[in-house]
Amino acid sequence: MVVLNRIYTKTGDKGETALADGTRVPKHALRVEAYGTVDELNATLGLAQLHAEGALAEALARIQNDLFDLGADLARPEMARDAEAGYPVLRIIESQVSRLEAEIDTMIARLEPLRSFILPGGSALAAHLHLCRTVARRAERGAVALAAAEEANPAAVKYLNRLSDWFFVAGRIANEDGRADVLWVPGANR
Question: 70, 159 in Cβ contact below 8 A?
Answer without folding.
Answer: yes
